[in-house]
Specification:
The chain is mainly beta. Helices cover 7% and strands 43% of the residues.
């Protein structure tokens, strides 16, 4: 009876060995530390990352930096008395005023965070008297989370707060409070109307009631998050109580989901998300390290160093590990 048992074990080991060996042979991309104390601001343009460092554990302080895919890092233009909060579409958006104090307008409007938007060269600067507000009564000043060529945007979500966004068109002064419900449109901060058609024939997916209890239904987005980049669309799903995120990948122009390699169809949710779409790349968060999938040839890569939230420029991946103060690392994306 001993010989058949050993034979069966040998067969099982032989069957599992190729998969384990293949995973071990994934090429590893070396990551390099940019800062040990940083806050990610965004991809300032297609080939430039923006971050603030050092920041410690405060909302203010530090210098905003612009880091091109190729070339020296340089300070970003930020008006005096302002703190850079977001970057995108060739712009840096800042909150201005005393960002260490939160007061309602009835107490002292001086303490509300006003908005400033500058070009990356500093040649263009717009300062608004308006502020972004959150809280049930719209009375608490909000940090800017995103900026585009037309709009700045802040998210409000949390205990006793419905899931919606505050938006200010920094060119016209128009302000909107929104909660996305149209599956045929995606948010576009570069568009004058704030929205653009989703790449046809795709539509965003409405969150089903089973994703959360009735009690917290309004605390979650009405539509599943969608990212459209470089002709690809990623639709993700994470239930309110779950820390697991699943996703489906599509090519614009087709309604058929693309089969993803094992491990890339879902991930543990982490900060900005377990899965991140770049221009021709897909990053997945794993406790044992980041994984990358090059969509053009489906080749996989490992990334050295601790895992974290992933962000892309055209030629680089940036990984933010930990909470403030957070470590920021970068990896050069290998081209075919």
């Amino acid at each position: 009876m001993l010989r058949p048992t050993l034979t069966t074990a040998a067969i099982l080991v032989a069957a599992l060995l190729p998969a384990a060996t293949a995973a071990a042979k994934l090429p590893t991309l070396a990551s390099h530390q940019v800062s040990s104390d940083a806050e990610w601001l965004g991809a300032a343009d297609a080939t430039t990352a923006a971050y603030r460092s050092p920041v410690g554990r405060t909302l203010t302080g530090g210098v905003a930096w612009l880091r091109p895919d190729a070339g020296p890092t340089r300070p970003a233009p930020v008006p005096a008395g302002c703190t850079a909060q977001a970057a995108g579409s060739g712009r840096i958006a800042s909150n201005c005023g005393d960002t260490d104090v939160l007061r309602t307008p009835s107490e002292d409007e001086h303490w509300l965070w006003r908005i400033a938007v500058t070009s990356l060269s500093g040649g263009e600067e717009v300062q608004l008297d308006q502020t972004l507000h959150t809280d049930a009564g719209g009375s608490m000043a909000a940090r800017i989370d995103w900026v585009g060529a037309q709009w700045v945007r802040s998210i409000e979500s949390g205990y006793h707060a419905t899931y919606h966004f505050q938006n200010v068109n920094w060119r016209t002064g128009e302000q909107r409070s929104t909660r996305e419900t149209d599956p045929a449109q995606v948010v576009d901060l570069d568009a004058p109307g704030l929205y653009a058609p989703m790449c046809p024939p795709l539509h965003a997916t409405v969150q089903p009631d089973t994703d959360s209890s009735d009690e917290v239904q309004e605390l979650a987005p009405a539509l599943r998050p969608v990212t459209v980049r470089g002709g690809w669309a990623l639709i993700t799903r994470a239930t309110y109580w779950s820390d697991f995120q699943s996703a489906k990948l599509y090519r614009c122009g087709s309604g058929k989901a693309i089969a993803l390699p094992r491990g890339f169809g879902g991930a543990k949710y982490h900060e900005a998300g377990g899965l991140t779409l770049g221009d021709g790349w897909l990053a997945v968060y794993r406790p044992d390290g980041m994984r990358l999938l090059r969509l053009a040839d489906r080749r996989q890569f490992k990334v050295s160093g601790a895992p974290g939230a992933a962000y892309f420029t055209e030629g680089r991946l940036y990984v933010v590990s930990g909470h403030l103060p957070a470590a920021l690392r970068t990896v050069v994306l290998p081209q075919r």
